[in-house]
Amino acid sequence: MRDKDYIEELFSRSLGEHQTGVRPEIWSAIQSKMAAASVASTAATTASKSLLVKGIIGLGSLAVIGIGSYIYFNNNENSISGKQVHENEKQVISSEDPAVKDENTIQSDNTSSGESVKEDRHLTYFPPVVTKEFSNSNTTAHTSTLENKVENPEAPVQSGVSVSNEEIKKELGVAKEEIKQVVSPGTSKEPVNTTTATTTGKSKQGYVRPWNVANVFTPNNDGINDFFFLETGGELKEFSITILDKDNKVVYRSEDTRFKWDGTNYLTGEKVPDGNYSYIIYAVDLNGELIKQFNLLYITK
Amino acid sequence: MPNLESIVLVMDDKTLIAGCVKGDAKAQKALFDKYASKMLVVCLRYFPNKMEAEDILQDGFVKIFHKIVDFKEDGSFEGWIRRIFVNTALDELRKRKSIFEEKDVSEFSYKITNNQSTDGDLRADDLLKMVQTLPDGYRIVFNMFAIEGYSHKEIAEILNISENTSKSQFFRAKALLRTQLEKIDFER
Questions:
Q1: B147 and A37: CB-CB below 8 Å?
Q2: A294, β-bridge pairs
Q3: Contacting residues for A3 by C-beta, under 8 A, at least 6 apart
Q4: Which of the four pLDDT bands, split at 50, 70 and 90, describes residue A261?
Q5: Sign of the C-alpha dihedral, residues B137, A16, B132, A253?
Q6: Range of the structural domain that residue A279 is part of
Q7: Three-class SS of residue B63?
Q8: CB pair distance less than 8 Å for A12 and B36
């Protein structure tokens, strides 16, 4: 009996008051959630005098407000992206950058315990930890093939993804700023799990298509490709991106779809060294479907 | 090293609450600064994955700022806050299935490599890691019973399990923790 009390006592005494560092980003995230919700609850006050009900409606409306603002921002970005696509294509035509014109083929095979990574160029890194991240929610073993082609510089960049047979097929038809996502019926049990990448080359600002993220960027303040960011095509309930270095250490994290990474380590504030990185996007769409995406990122200054 | 947490602006709870009820952003930030680091530990006890724990932390604070008007001043404010975080964590856990499936005990693999038991904080960190590496069911029941102080009856109701399951999960959790503690000889 004494022993029982000792263990309970030890843990409750030590952990009850224990503290750990909280990243400042958490506060910004709470603030943005609050900002959206306060609009909702102001509206709710007129409808109901009950404070409790007000709270509930406020929270319930949070998602709706969130959607509203996403749509707004997407519209904004889309108008810009149209221009950027053009610039992009021109850049591709004129570009002699070997990173741009060739094919990067990365194959990952999760069916066997080992992973085979086949590629040309500099994308030599495939972190095992990421694979684990992806398989943690009842995903069956799968094979994904990823191909990035910039075949014809005049045509829009296409990226095709095939996730094996029974898995969800997610087709990305990239026509300028428009993207369609088709989830084939009958497979809704599986989480959406796709990987896409497009080599955008030397665009003005590391332009990124919906779910197509640049995999090379050059944070050297020359006005070309200095930031890494994403443009979402659909509205999302939740979003986070984590960028890892080759030792799987986190160098950047954001929960804002409008994040802009300048290549500095978010903990130390120092520019990260050139080399291979990877990122994980973890998002929930409006249907509550989990979208997990991982890709490689090459940094060169 | 100075502990930055201890230099946080001290504003008494009454002022904080009054400010938060009015929706004052400064008061909200002060409340966050005062309690976030402690509440993150609460979240981490239920969700060892830091990303998930941080999500719970955010949702908990949003709830607090909304519900603060309902706070009755006769109870402990910190206790009220803590309950909101625990409930937020439990709500999330209830959405998930298979928490109480039998787990192989060999999953419990945390080893304390460098035993820096002289530093109080590190020691608490070690204890936290031990709790975090417990299998899900053990961990949740242990947290609720030993740290939050729920009874087995309450735990059974909240988690929709039997009282006996709650008890057995708790005793197994404690047995695992005891083994770990003996290994590292905490009281040396």
A1: no
A2: A280
A3: B178
A4: confident
A5: positive
A6: 97-299
A7: helix
A8: no
Per-chain mean pLDDT for chain A:
55
Taking the CB of residue A151, how many other CB atoms lie within 10 A of it? Answer: 10
Is A1 within the bounds of a domain?
A: no
**Residue predicted with more confidence, B8 or B146:** B146
**Chain-chain contact of A27 with B29 (C-beta, under 8 angstroms):** yes
For residues B83-101, give the mean pLDDT: 82
At residue A270, the pLDDT reads 83
Among A18-32, A142-156, A224-238, B97-111, the range scoring the smallest mean pLDDT is A142-156
Instruction: State the Cα–Cα distance between residues A106 and A271, nearest whole angstrom.
Output: 27
- Domain-embedded: residue A117: yes
* Residue A180: strand, helix, or coil: strand
Structural domain includes residue A46:
no
**Rg of chain B, C-alpha, whole Å:** 18
Which of B23, B41, B186 comes nearest A20 by C-beta? B41
Strands (E), chain A: 104-109, 143-149, 158-163, 170-175, 178-183, 192-193, 216-217, 228-229, 236-244, 250-254, 260-261, 275-285, 290-299
Question: Is the CB of residue A66 less than 8 Å away from at least one CB of chain B?
Answer: no
> What number of helices (H) and strands (E) belong to chain A?
5, 13
Q: What percent of chain B has pLDDT above 70? A: 78
Report the number of distinct structural domains present in chain A. 1
Q: Chain A partners of B44 at a C-beta cutoff of 8 Å?
A: 20
Predicted complex ipTM exceeds 0.85: no
Contact indicator for A95, A271 with CB cutoff of 8 Å: no
Q: What is the pLDDT of residue B180?
A: 82
Place of tokens 């407000």: A65
Closest Cβ–Cβ partner in B70, B142, B146 for A51: B70
Whole-angstrom distance, CA of residue A226 vs CA of residue A224: 5
pTM higher than the cut 0.80? no
Residue bearing tokens 């810009």: A80
Domain ranges of chain B: 1-96, 101-188
B18-25 long-range CB contacts below 8 Å, 24 or more apart? B20/B64, B20/B65, B20/B68, B21/B68, B21/B69, B23/A38, B23/B65, B25/A31
User: Does any domain span residue A164?
Assistant: yes
Which residues of B fall within a CB distance of 8 Å from A11? 127, 131, 142, 146-147, 177
Q: How does DSSP classify residue B146?
A: I
**Rounded to 10 degrees, what is the CA torsion of A200, A201, A206, A211?**
20
Query: What does CATH list as the number for B101-188?
Result: 1.10.10.10
Look at residue B172 in the predicted model and tell me its pLDDT.
92
Query: Out of 3.40.50.2000, 3.40.1280.10, 1.10.1740.10, 1.10.110.30, which CATH number does the structure's domain B1-96 have?
Result: 1.10.1740.10
